[in-house]
Amino acid sequence: MWRDFGSSRRFHISKFSRFFVLTVLTDGGFCALILGGIAGLWIDNMGLGIILTVSLMCNMLWASFAGTLFPIIISRFGLDPAISAGPILTTTTDVLGYALFLGLATLFLI
Question: What is the CATH code for 9-109?
């Protein structure tokens, strides 16, 4: 149970973090490569496809870390993680996604 961490809290956090990172690198990497390739071929600009792939991978990696750690951190403050983590996770993932995509596009395409 998540609310009863006990003495092996660090083991569980590292175990679940590794699991989500590996899941993101396999599933997210596959989806990011396909979407980046489609965008690059469709617009005929492979630089844009690479930027989309990198920003999508970084955004998915952040979402997996934050989705794992935000509920744990919020429960330490005594709040309900099921209610509190959702809006925080959505906001940070959206802001990071826009910032990564637009920042990388500005750096490499302009």
Answer: 1.10.357.20
d(CA 55, CA 106): 13
Can you give the pTM of this predicted structure? Answer: 0.75
Domain ranges of the chain: 9-109
Most trustworthy range by pLDDT among 4-13, 34-43, 63-72, 86-95 = 86-95
Judged by DSSP in three states, 91 sits in helix
pLDDT in tens, 84-100: 888 999 999 999 999 99
